[in-house]
Amino acid sequence: MSGGAVPPPRTALVTGAAQGIGRAICEALGRNGLRIVALDKDSAALRTLANDLADQGVDALPVDADVSEAEAIDAALAAVAQRGWDIDVLVPCAAIDPREDPLCIARSSAQQQFAVNLQATLQLVAALVPGMQARQYGRVIAIGSVQEERPRRDNLLYAALKAAQTHAMRSWARDCARGDVTFNVVRPGAIETRRNRDVLADPAYRQSVVDRIPLGRLGQPHDCAGVVAWLCTDAASYVNGAVIDVDGGMRL
User: How far is CA 13 from CA 28, 29, 90, in A?
Assistant: First the structure.
């Protein structure tokens, strides 16, 4: 019996990879045999992630990059190309959500939020999806938010930009899906991450959030990562344009 060449493992690029949901996604995809390109601007946390992935036997390329800067994204993609890897899975996870008065959003804050929460996704999709189409395989899984449906008073722009990202994803799912290339959105609810640690530190506020969740608990990063990992499997190859809420029923 003659054997053919063994294809290389698939490669996933995850932004906001060094902590919280992004880190959990890197770990979950790594366990499923994917190589990981991890983008984050937190250099120390990125090094820790890279070391932990290496200890788990995962082939990873950590890239220190601030995705609010187009040039940083271009440089990251150049580093991937230099490694000789093709990106098969794209997970735009990086996000910022400053608490602001909805009538007093500073121009500088708006520009920064637009760059991270939407423009980075647009840039990465434009750069990577043509290659996925040519290879007849790709998964784009954007991390949205249940706030798209009902924004918090102090997160108006964050929610609006996440909603815009979801609309873009659904448009790509309709117009750009080819062969086995799909576009889906995972929308976390109240997840215990470092980014949410301060607001959840108040016991009264924390309980008020839990009281709104039918499952009676806050979510963990792995709750979202498991859904992302499933969307990258063959079992999910016919799921395209879906918006999956991972919120314990909080939206209901």
Answer: 13, 10, 5
Domain membership of residue 6 (yes or no) is no
- Residues of the chain with confidence (pLDDT) below 50: 1
Tell me the pLDDT tens digit for each residue of 16-51.
999 999 999 999 999 999 999 999 999 999 999 999
Could you give the residue ranges of the DSSP H alpha helices within the chain? Answer: 20-31, 43-55, 70-83, 107-114, 120-135, 156-175, 197-200, 203-210, 221-231
User: Which residues are designated catalytic?
Assistant: 158
Q: Where are the alpha helices (DSSP H) in 57-143?
A: 70-83, 107-114, 120-135
Give domain status of residue 203, yes or no. no
In a domain, 208, yes or no: no
Range of the domain at 228: 11-189+219-246
Task: Decide if 237 is inside a domain.
Answer: yes
**Total number of domains in the chain:** 1
**pTM of the predicted model as reported, rounded to 2 decimal places:** 0.95
Residue 210, number of CB atoms within 10 A of its CB: 16
